[in-house]
């Protein structure tokens, strides 16, 4: 497997992959940072070009996951790596609590230790659920949603594609949040939020309209 990225969040994904005993032939990808090269932790090769990644997929293992936060960037990397034959792959910690009934976790999702997902929850592709995040019953999370540490999403909420829910934020039940929305850390969302919005505060208020996404 390739973990796309070799800093920050990629190291957290590494811990989950290690828990799952899937480190055989594991490599990282970083073509941006000049200070990252050789082997990460003196063990895992760092791939520096898309051509090298393509060769890895053809000759070693065609799986990849994304070790970088930011929903927009994750979507672009997903496009790049599937285009060269990669298979988007989830990493779900054994220390996460996932409901037994009517739960679907989309491919390429990264679910970290301490995450708690209730029954009847649907999660799109490429999501991130950080430490101690909670998603309660009958929620729907779109593609490439990022739920930060300690955030809570209460029952029957709908979270649109490419949203970021900040650390320790709370989304009250029956709330619908549009696409490309950022909820600030510690905010409490008490009413629906339109697309392309930045929300902060208690209760949460839209303070800025974001530029629509263009992939």
Automatic annotation (TrEMBL):
UniProt xrefs under Gene3D superfamilies: 3.40.50.20, Hexapeptide repeat proteins
InterPro entries for the chain: AcTrfase_PglD-like, Hexapep, Hexapep_transf_CS, PglD_N, Trans_hexapeptide_repeat, Trimer_LpxA-like_sf
Residue span, PglD N-terminal domain: 2-80
Keywords, alphabetical: Acyltransferase, Amino-acid biosynthesis, Diaminopimelate biosynthesis, Lysine biosynthesis, Repeat, Transferase
Pfam families to which the protein is assigned, alphabetical: Hexapep, PglD_N
UniProt-listed PANTHER family: 2,3,4,5-TETRAHYDROPYRIDINE-2,6-DICARBOXYLATE N-ACETYLTRANSFERASE (PTHR43300:SF10), ACETYLTRANSFERASE (PTHR43300)
UniProt similarity note: Belongs to the transferase hexapeptide repeat family.
Name used for this protein in its record: PglD N-terminal domain-containing protein
